[in-house]
C-alpha cells in the first residue's frame, strides 16, 4: 500500500481530520458521508465491515444509525482516534475497531451484509486482491470510491509526493468482473480535486462547490468528475 508508514504515524492520525475536513474540507466530509448512506441505505441491524476505516468517520456514523459494524485499519494510531470519536458519540459499546490487513481479512466467507471502503483504492498497489477479499466476506454488497483519470485529479496527482492510482470506468468494470461483483449503481462528482477545497475558507468553498455541482449535473459531468462512488452486488 502506498503511504502505509505515513498513515501509521501518531502525529498524522491526530491531525488527520483537522487537516482534511476543516475549512472547505467540510464539504468533502458531508458529500462522502452522503454517498455512503445513499449506497447502503437503512443500516439498523445490518452487519457491516469498513475497510481502512481510519479515524472512524463512517464507522461511527453508521453505528449511530444502528449498524452492527466493525472498522478495520492497519494503523493503530488511526484506530485510537476512532475509539475517541466513538466514545464522544456515545456508541463505543455498539461497534468494534480492529487492527488488520485488508489483503487478509480475518473473517469467514459471507460474514457481512455490506463491506465498504472509502479513501482506500487510490492507495492500493494490488486492487484486485483487496476487492476479492472484500467480496469474499460480503454476503450482499460491496461499496467503494476511486479517483478518476483522466480528470483534474491527474494534474493534482502528478504534484503529490505519494501519488494516487486513478481508475477509468473500464478499469472498475474489469475489477468487478474478476471478483464476481455486479455494478448496480455509480455516482460521479467533484470536477475540482479534493485538495483544492481543503485550502480555502468555508464561504468561498461553498460558492465554488455550487459551480462545480452545476458542471457535474451537465451532460458532460460524468466525464469531468474526479471521484466516483461504486455500488456493487455479489453475484
UniProtKB/TrEMBL annotation:
Q: Which UniProt keywords are listed?
A: Methyltransferase, Transferase
- Residues forming the Methyltransferase type domain are 49-140
Q: Which domain of life is it from?
A: Archaea
| Gene3D superfamilies reported in the protein's UniProt record | Vaccinia Virus protein VP39
Q: Name one Pfam family in it.
A: Methyltransf_11
Record flagged with keyword Cell membrane: no
GO MF terms listed in the record are: S-adenosylmethionine-dependent methyltransferase activity
Q: Any idea what this protein is called?
A: Class I SAM-dependent methyltransferase
Amino acid at each position: 500500500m502506498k503511504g502505509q508508514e505515513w498513515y501509521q504515524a501518531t502525529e498524522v492520525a491526530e491531525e488527520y481530520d483537522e487537516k482534511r475536513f476543516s475549512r472547505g474540507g467540510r464539504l468533502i466530509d458531508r458529500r462522502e458521508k452522503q454517498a455512503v448512506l445513499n449506497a447502503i441505505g437503512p443500516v439498523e441491524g445490518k452487519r457491516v465491515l469498513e475497510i481502512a476505516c481510519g479515524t472512524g468517520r463512517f464507522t461511527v456514523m453508521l453505528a449511530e444509525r444502528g449498524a452492527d459494524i466493525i472498522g478495520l485499519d492497519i494503523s493503530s494510531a488511526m484506530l485510537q482516534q476512532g475509539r475517541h470519536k466513538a466514545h464522544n458519540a456515545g456508541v463505543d459499546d455498539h461497534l468494534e475497531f480492529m487492527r488488520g490487513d485488508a489483503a487478509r481479512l480475518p473473517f469467514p466467507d459471507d460474514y457481512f451484509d455490506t463491506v465498504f471502503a472509502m479513501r482506500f483504492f487510490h492507495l492500493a498497489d494490488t486492487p484486485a486482491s483487496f476487492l476479492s477479499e472484500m467480496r469474499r466476506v460480503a454476503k450482499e454488497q460491496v461499496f467503494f470510491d476511486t479517483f478518476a483519470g483522466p480528470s483534474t485529479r491527474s494534474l493534482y496527482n502528478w504534484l503529490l509526493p505519494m501519488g494516487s492510482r486513478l481508475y477509468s470506468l473500464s478499469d472498475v468494470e474489469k475489477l468487478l468482473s474478476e471478483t464476481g461483483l455486479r455494478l448496480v449503481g455509480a455516482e460521479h462528482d467533484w470536477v475540482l480535486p479534493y485538495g483544492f477545497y481543503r485550502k480555502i475558507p468555508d464561504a468561498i468553498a461553498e460558492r465554488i462547490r455550487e459551480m462545480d455541482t452545476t458542471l457535474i449535473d451537465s451532460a458532460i459531468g460524468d466525464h469531468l468528475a474526479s471521484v466516483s462512488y461504486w455500488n456493487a452486488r455479489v453475484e
